């Protein structure tokens, strides 16, 4: 990537605490780097055309797995072109909730679309690779209990069932093992502030120290 900015993604199964961690991480990064240096965003839907796609993806019952996959990729394409790449080119840090690892874990491990076939599509898309991915690792029961406490209506993917989420969890573990230089697994079971501390440590170790070393 020729961009000057830094790209961080947060990943994990539904109920792992991504949004809370994204908020805490961005607040800390703004304190560390200065105001306006950080873009907090999310998928699906984090761009001007994304609202309609997010609604379709999370609510439309008639989507097949193939249509679902293509819509997630279309959403990402718009998100990158209008939000992520411009921010990185301006030297900002981008913190994005969910990205390509979600597509691999949910659509390949979860829905059963072949990893090799999906890799062909992803290679064609040439989406930027994150500098660091934080995988918020949590067991399915704890995540499910958290979602229940949140008490809001369940979306299509959350409603896909326990076996589906178990396969997604397996996918994330496998992805983390395959890319140890990019993906850092953080135990997401403790309270939010403890998890945030581990996330900050990972960012300091993998990004801030490296940048200082290069300066
Ligand atoms: P998310 O915004 O994390 O849900 P919530 O706001 O309810 O926490 O993501 C919505 C759902 O979309 C989530 O179940 C994961 C799924 N998803 C995929 O299946 N593939 C993808 O590529 C992405 C980005 C998300």
The chain-level structural class is alpha/beta
First-residue to last-residue Cα separation: 18 Å
Q: Which parts are unreliable, with pLDDT below 50 for 5 consecutive residues or more?
A: none
- Supply Rg: 17 Å
Beta strand %: 5-15%
The overall pLDDT average reads 94
- Spatial order of the strands forming the largest sheet: 2-3-1-4-5
Total of helices: 8
Bound molecules: thymidine-5'-diphosphate
Outline: globular
What percentage of residues falls in helices of 4 or more residues?
A: 55-70%
H/E series, N to C? Answer: EHEHHEHHEHHEH
Beta strand count: 5
Sheet with most strands:
5 strands, parallel
Which keywords apply here?
alpha/beta, 5-stranded parallel beta sheet, 8 helices, 215 residues, binds thymidine-5'-diphosphate
């Amino acid at each position: 990537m020729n961009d000057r900015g830094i790209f961080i993604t947060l990943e994990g199964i539904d109920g792992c605490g991504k949004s809370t961690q994204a908020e805490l991480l961005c607040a800390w990064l703004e304190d560390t780097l200065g105001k306006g240096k950080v873009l907090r965003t999310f998928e699906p839907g984090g761009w001007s055309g994304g609202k309609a796609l997010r609604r379709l993806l999370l609510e439309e019952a008639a989507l097949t797995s193939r249509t679902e996959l293509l819509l997630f990729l279309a959403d990402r394409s718009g998100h990158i072109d209008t939000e992520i790449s411009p921010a990185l080119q301006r030297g900002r840090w981008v913190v994005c909730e969910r990205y390509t690892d979600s597509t691999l874990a949910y659509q390949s491990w979860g829905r059963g679309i072949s990893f090799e076939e999906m890799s062909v599509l992803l290679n064609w898309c040439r989406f930027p690779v994150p500098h660091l991915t934080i995988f918020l690792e949590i067991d399915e029961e704890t995540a499910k209990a958290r979602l229940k406490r949140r008490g809001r209506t369940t979306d299509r993917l959350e409603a896909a069932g326990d076996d589906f989420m178990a396969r997604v969890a397996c996918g994330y573990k496998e992805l983390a093992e395959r890319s140890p230089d990019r993906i850092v697994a953080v135990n997401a079971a403790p309270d939010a502030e403890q998890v945030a501390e581990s996330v900050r440590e990972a960012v300091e170790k993998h990004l801030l120290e490296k940048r200082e070393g290069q300066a």
